[in-house]
Specification:
Elements: H1 11-22, E1 27-31, H2 38-49, E2 52-57, H3 63-71, H4 76-87, E3 96-101, H5 107-119, E4 123-128, H6 134-137, E5 146-150, H7 156-162, H8 168-177, H9 186-199, H10 203-212, H11 215-234, E6 237-242, E7 248-252, H12 288-295, H13 302-306, H14 317-326, H15 340-360, H16 363-366, E8 400-404, E9 407-411
Parallel strand pairs: 1-4, 1-5, 2-3, 3-4
Antiparallel strand pairs: 6-7, 8-9
Length: 419
């Protein structure tokens, strides 16, 4: 876009300062929401302060470029050569800037910064949004060579600069410091301030305002930016609750296993999945009689039935294996053949295993009911789950792994015989 407006931004001076002070020893990451003008200011900085530069926009970069940072990491010469030929630029050593734009789309490139900075041939600038959210930093060693500054939309002073007003803020400062009256200028400044509140600090919205003076058009642009933000965040976010104190409760579900129901308070025990939930492990009604009654109609393997939340709640795949191991029950045993003694063991060890698990879960679940003062048998230690490389801690037989109902299942073939 050739008709792009370049607004004067305060952050520019910080970039110049970084270039001077760092002298190639660090990379700089500019973090801030999308569309606040990061790429624009960075490009302007590159044009003005370097002989040449190269921008990789990871939002649109082809896979062959991203692939360099994933599969060619050991060969910096190759990476730098390919980048220059792909973007058709020749970068003079120590006089050029390489920009990783929207680096959150390629965490591998960000993790290469350490080596690129050490290589020393070029300066590196990164821009990114949502850079600290988990999926963008997972498995990434944040390079200590990276300095970070935050960028925001235009503030009121920057907004006035776009209207070619360089005098108002120094004047206001002077009034403030010397306790002078703003007087006759007050009305005009308040009008500009209200305009700023309406237009906001997004460069695209300000450019539209300058060109058209139409608040409708400005509003449309801001709506588009908002929906872009929603798309960025919304991928796994399905429900957002606006709470009374202004904060938000967000329901994120990457695997879409969850369900949500909107029901009246009085219907909570009549409608929805809670109605069908089984007993808590610590419920007094959880007895061997209760279990045997539930088990007698089914012929499924006990492992699968333990995972059925309509009988006992809270037993997941890992803990089912541990419970069966401690109860000395083969995971494939049909549940209608479970004896009274076995059912009692299941109840006993369900409590022990889950108590230990909750204990391990730390302070966030510590307030959960009925775990006070109870310490699990094995704290963080699992006996069988995931231990198919190990031997049984009781009889030293090799732990086996099988599939039961599609779930990975571990057990000791000697301690947990099928009879
Ligand atoms: Zn064993």
């Amino acid at each position: 876009m050739d008709n792009k407006m370049y607004f004067k931004r305060k952050i520019y001076d910080k970039l110049v300062e970084w270039k001077k002070n760092s002298d190639g020893k660090t990379a700089l990451l500019i973090e801030g929401a999308r569309r606040i003008g990061k790429s624009t200011i960075v490009e302007l900085f590159a044009k003005n302060e370097y002989e040449n530069y190269l921008i990789i926009d990871f939002n649109i970069a082809p896979n062959e470029i991203k692939d360099l940072f994933i599969n060619e990491r050991s060969d910096i010469d190759l990476i730098l050569q390919k980048l220059q030929s792909f973007y058709g630029k020749v970068l003079p050593v120590r006089k050029s800037l390489i920009i990783f734009d929207e680096v959150q789309f390629c965490p591998e490139a960000r993790s290469m910064i350490k080596y690129l900075v050490a290589d020393g041939r070029y300066d590196y600038l990164e821009t990114g949004s949502l850079i600290s959210i988990k999926k963008n930093v997972e498995n990434i060693l944040i390079p200590s060579e990276e300095r970070k500054i935050n960028m925001y939309p235009l503030d009121f002073e920057e907004f006035l600069w776009t209207l070619n007003d360089n005098a108002t803020i120094p004047f206001l400062r002077d009034c403030y410091i010397n306790k002078k009256k703003v007087d006759i200028a007050h009305k005009r400044i308040m009008k500009d301030f209200r305009t700023y509140i309406l237009v906001g600090g997004m460069p695209q919205a300000i450019a539209e305002y300058i060109n058209t003076k139409s608040f409708d058009r400005v509003d449309e642009i801001k709506r588009n930016i908002l929906s872009l933000y929603h798309d960025d965040i919304n991928k796994h976010e399905h429900v957002i609750f606006d709470l009374d104190d202004g904060s938000e409760l967000r329901y994120m579900d990457t695997r879409k296993f969850g369900k949500m129901y909107l029901i009246k308070k009085e219907d909570i025990n009549k409608i929805g999945p809670l109605v069908k939930l089984g007993l808590e492990p610590w419920d007094d009604n959880l007895t061997s009689e209760y279990l045997l009654d539930k088990y007698k109609k089914k012929k499924l393997p006990i492992k699968s039935v333990l995972l059925d939340q309509n009988i006992i709640v809270g037993i997941g795949n890992i803990y089912a294996d541990e419970i069966l191991f401690l109860s000395k029950i083969n995971p494939l045993k049909k549940c209608n053949l479970i004896t009274k003694e076995e059912a009692e063991n299941i109840i006993k060890y369900t409590k022990k295993v889950l108590e230990a698990a909750i204990e391990k879960g730390g302070t966030t679940i510590r307030t959960y009911s009925s775990v006070d003062g109870v310490h699990g048998l094995f704290q963080n230690e699992l006996f069988v789950h995931g231990k198919d490389k190990n031997n049984c801690p009781i009889c030293n037989t090799k732990i086996e792994k099988i599939k039961v109902g599609g779930r990975g299942t571990y057990y000791c073939p000697k301690c947990q015989t099928l009879q």
